[in-house]
Specification:
Elements (H helix, E strand, L loop, with lengths): L4 H10 L13 E6 L3 H12 L4 E5 L5 H5 L2 H19 L14 H15 L5 H6 L2 E5 L3 E4 L2 E4 L2 E10 L3 E3 L12 E2 L1 H4 L8 E5 L3 H12 L3 E6 L10 H13 L3 E4 L1 E7 L2 E6 L3 E5 L3 E4 L3 E3 L6 H4 L3 E2 L2 E2 L12 E3 L10 H16 L13 E3 L4 E6 L4 E6 L4 H5 L6 E7 L2 E9 L2 H13 L4 H6 L9 H13 L3 H13 L1
Parallel strand pairs: 1-2, 1-6, 2-3, 6-19, 8-15, 9-10, 9-15, 10-11
Antiparallel strand pairs: 4-5, 5-6, 7-16, 12-13, 13-14, 17-18, 20-21, 21-24, 22-23, 23-24
Helix pairs in contact: 1-5, 2-11, 4-5, 4-8
Length: about 475
C-alpha cells in the first residue's frame, strides 16, 4: 500500500502494528480461519451468542470486500460517475466547462473512504465483542485443532472462510509484465494512459467503464461472445452499448496469445491477429480459492479446484469443520458470504439443518447502468422497457428494462438493467423469497415517479394476459346487465 495517512488508519484497524496474539483458551467452541465477510460474521455472531471464539487472519481483516474489492471499487465508480454526469450535463440543459479529472485525488478519496469503513472490521471491535484475534498463517494440526504462530487452538467446531484470490491465466509473457489484479489495482497513484483488461466479467466491466470515464484509453478483451457471460444476453448488450459510448474498446471472441513490449498479441475470428498496445494490464479472469496453506489433509477436509467441498448444510467431510464464503460457494459476493456465515452459526453450534440451497441470493454488477439478477432464467418472460417507465424517461435513462420470469404468474426470477438496479432487485428478491406472484407486484403501491413502478407495470401487464376472449365476453354480458 502507498505510504498514505488513510492507509495507516486502515492498517491500524485491520492489522494493528505490535498486536500481540492472546494466550489460547483450553478449547474454543468455534475457530474461524479467515477475517473476510464470512469469517467476521461467523465470529461476531457466535461470540454474541456467548460462544468461545477465536479468529485467525494472515493479512488484513475485512478481506477482499474492504481492502481490494467492493469498497475501493465502488469509491472509484462514484468518482467516475461524477465525471460522466458532468460530460452529459448539456443533455439536461446544464453547461459544464473545464472538466478535469485529478486521478491522484480520486485514488486518495478512495483510500479515505476505505479507512472510514475499516473500524467496522477492526481487531479492536472483535476483541471488544469477546473474540480472540490471532494474526498469522493458520494450518490444521489435526481434525480438531489449528496451529498459528506456534500455538495450537483446539476447537469443538471450525469454519474455513479463507476466501479467494485472482486467477492468473498462463499467457506467455504475462509473468514478466507489470500486470495488475484487484489486489494491486487500488494501490495506483498515477493514471495509466492505456489500460488493457483481460476478462469481461463484473470486475473487468466495472473497472473498464470507470477508468475510461476517468480518461484512460481502455481495451476490454474476453474469449466469450458477450460481456458478463453469466447474464441475460439482452441485459449484457445494454451494458456493452454504454461501455462503448464511454470509450471502451471491446474485443469479444478474442484470445490473448502472448504479451510483449509492444502490447497484447490478440487473435479473434472477427478481427484476426492484432497487437493491443498498453501501459498497464489488469487481469480480471476469475478467482481461485485460498486453500494451499491450510493442510486440509490433516483435518480430513476435501477440496477441488473450485474450493472446499461442502454439503448443503455447509459441512465438510470432517463433521467438526464447516466452510462459508468464496472458498466454497459459487456465489462470490459479500452478501452471500454473510448469509452463508449465518447458516454456519446455526448448523455448527446449534445442530441446525439450515440449507444453503434454500437461500435466494441476488447479485449486481455496478456498471452504469447496473445489471442485477435474482432467481431463475427459465419460464415465461415479461419485459418492461425503461422507455415505458416515466422516471426513466425524465432522467434520460431509457436504455434498460425490468424482465420477470414466471410460471403462470408465479415469480421465478428477475433481471434488471437500470441506473439503480442494485436497489431495485431487493423488491424482486423479497417477492421471490416469500412466494409472491406477479399479481402481488401489481397490487403493491410504489411512490411515483420511481423506477420501481416498472414492477407494477409488469403485474398489470400480466393481469391483462388473463383477459382471454372468453373472459371478455363474460364481462361484456355483465356490464350489459349492470
Amino acid at each position: 500500500m502507498p505510504a498514505d495517512p488513510a492507509d495507516a488508519r486502515l492498517r491500524a484497524a485491520a492489522h494493528p502494528a505490535g498486536w500481540t496474539n492472546p494466550d489460547p483458551q483450553r478449547r474454543y467452541d468455534l475457530v474461524v480461519i479467515g477475517g473476510g465477510t464470512a469469517g467476521l460474521v461467523s465470529a461476531m455472531g457466535a461470540a454474541g451468542l456467548g460462544a468461545r471464539v477465536a479468529l485467525v487472519e494472515r493479512a488484513l481483516l475485512g478481506g477482499d470486500c474492504l481492502n481490494t474489492g467492493c469498497v475501493p471499487s465502488k469509491a472509484i465508480l462514484r468518482s467516475a460517475r461524477a465525471a460522466a454526469e458532468a460530460r452529459h450535463a448539456p443533455a439536461v440543459g446544464v453547461r459544464v466547462s473545464g472538466l478535469e479529472v485529478d486521478f491522484a485525488a480520486v485514488m486518495r478519496r478512495m483510500r479515505e473512504r476505505r479507512a472510514d469503513i475499516s473500524p467496522n472490521d477492526s481487531a479492536e471491535r472483535l476483541r471488544a465483542a469477546g473474540v480472540d484475534v490471532f494474526f498469522g498463517e493458520a494450518r490444521f494440526a489435526g481434525p480438531a485443532a489449528v496451529a498459528v504462530d506456534g500455538r495450537t487452538l483446539a476447537f469443538r467446531r471450525a469454519v474455513i472462510a479463507t476466501g479467494g484470490r485472482p486467477a492468473v491465466p498462463e499467457i506467455p509473457g504475462l509473468a514478466s509484465a507489470p500486470y495488475l489484479t484487484n489486489e494491486t489495482l487500488f494501490a495506483l497513484t498515477e493514471q495509466p494512459r492505456r489500460l488493457a483488461i483481460i476478462g469481461a466479467g463484473p470486475i473487468g466491466c466495472e473497472m473498464a467503464q470507470a477508468f475510461a470515464r476517468l480518461g484512460t484509453a481502455v481495451t476490454l478483451i474476453d474469449q466469450g461472445a458477450q460481456l458478463l457471460p453469466q447474464e441475460d444476453a439482452d441485459a449484457a448488450a445494454v451494458v456493452a452499448r454504454r461501455l462503448t459510448a464511454d470509450g471502451v474498446s471491446i474485443r469479444l471472441g478474442a484470445t490473448v496469445r502472448a504479451i510483449s513490449d509492444a502490447g497484447l498479441e490478440v487473435s479473434g475470428a472477427a478481427t484476426g491477429a492484432t497487437v493491443e498496445p498498453c501501459d498497464r494490464i489488469l487481469v480480471a479472469a476469475g478467482r481461485s480459492p485460498n486453500v494451499e496453506a491450510l493442510d486440509l489433509a490433516a483435518a480430513g477436509v476435501a477440496c477441488s479446484k473450485e474450493g472446499i467441498i461442502v454439503d448443503d448444510h455447509l459441512r465438510t467431510g470432517n463433521r467438526r469443520i464447516f466452510a462459508a464464503g468464496d472458498v466454497c460457494s459459487r456465489f462470490k459476493f459479500t452478501h452471500a458470504a454473510d448469509a452463508l456465515a449465518r447458516i454456519v452459526i446455526q448448523n455448527a453450534l446449534f445442530f441446525g439443518r439450515k440449507r444453503a440451497s434454500a437461500l435466494v441470493i441476488p447479485w449486481c454488477t455496478y456498471t452504469d447502468p447496473e445489471l442485477a439478477h435474482v432467481g431463475a432464467y427459465d419460464g415465461a418472460r415479461l419485459t418492461i422497457p425503461l422507455a415505458d417507465v416515466d422516471r426513466a424517461v425524465v432522467d434520460d435513462e431509457r436504455d434498460g428494462f425490468v424482465r420477470l420470469h414466471h410460471d403462470a404468474g408465479r415469480l421465478l426470477g428477475c433481471t434488471i438493467v437500470a441506473s439503480r438496479a442494485g436497489e431495485m432487485i431487493g423488491v424482486a428478491t423479497h417477492a421471490l423469497t416469500h412466494g409472491a406472484r406477479l399479481a402481488d407486484l401489481g397490487s403493491t403501491i410504489y411512490p411515483y415517479p420511481t423506477l420501481n413502478n416498472a414492477f407494477r407495470a409488469a403485474g398489470d401487464a400480466y393481469g391483462r394476459t388473463r383477459l382471454t376472449p372468453a373472459v371478455r365476453r363474460l364481462l361484456r354480458r355483465y356490464f350489459r346487465l349492470f
